[in-house]
Every structure is written in structure tokens, then in C-alpha cells.
Design goal:
101 residues, mainly alpha, 0% strand
């Protein structure tokens, strides 16, 4: 049976999260080149995600309709099986295929 989580374990997790956040805030407020690059990249990521969100909101239905097959069958308009073959069966004269080295 698993041991119950005690207060000390949860306290350690909380302290390490708080320590990480305080170091992150200290680095964020510093005028360092790596922080500036991080801020630029984070801004680019957020801007790209927002642009993708709005583009999908505007053009999403159009893209979905382009790739969604209408009709009956297993994949929309395609038939379940080829009309001249019966499922997995091959022609009567075909020999079974084997692996050769």
C-alpha cells in the first residue's frame, strides 16, 4: 500500500516552486541579454498562437470542408471494396506471396 503524502513532502514541493519562481522573477527584472532574447521569443510565440487561433476561427470551416469527403462508404466518397475484388481474397490463379532473401 502506498504511503500517504505527508506535509513535509508537500512543503518541499511548494518551497522548490517558490524558489524557482523567485529566481525567474529576479532574472526577468534583470537587464540581461538572454532575458531580452527570451522576452522576444516569448512574445513571438504568443503572437503566433493568437494569429493561428484567429485564422482557424475565420478559415477553419473552409479548410475542414475541403478535406472532409462527402458521401457514403468507409472514407466518405470511396467505396467499401473494389468492385472486381472480393475483400482480402486474391484471384484464383495467383500463387501466395512469400518472403525471399
Amino acid at each position: 500500500m502506498a504511503e500517504p503524502w505527508d506535509f513535509e513532502f508537500l512543503s518541499r514541493i511548494g518551497d522548490s516552486c517558490l524558489s524557482f519562481l523567485s529566481e525567474f522573477v529576479d532574472d526577468w527584472l534583470a537587464n540581461d541579454m538572454r532575458v531580452s532574447i527570451f522576452k522576444i521569443l516569448l512574445g513571438w510565440l504568443i503572437l503566433s498562437l493568437v494569429a493561428i487561433h484567429f485564422a482557424w476561427k475565420i478559415y477553419g470551416n473552409t479548410v475542414n470542408d475541403m478535406y472532409y469527403r462527402q458521401g457514403t462508404g468507409q472514407n466518405g466518397g470511396t467505396p467499401d471494396t473494389a468492385p472486381h475484388l472480393s475483400g482480402w481474397e486474391s484471384k484464383a490463379g495467383d500463387a501466395p506471396k512469400t518472403h525471399r532473401d
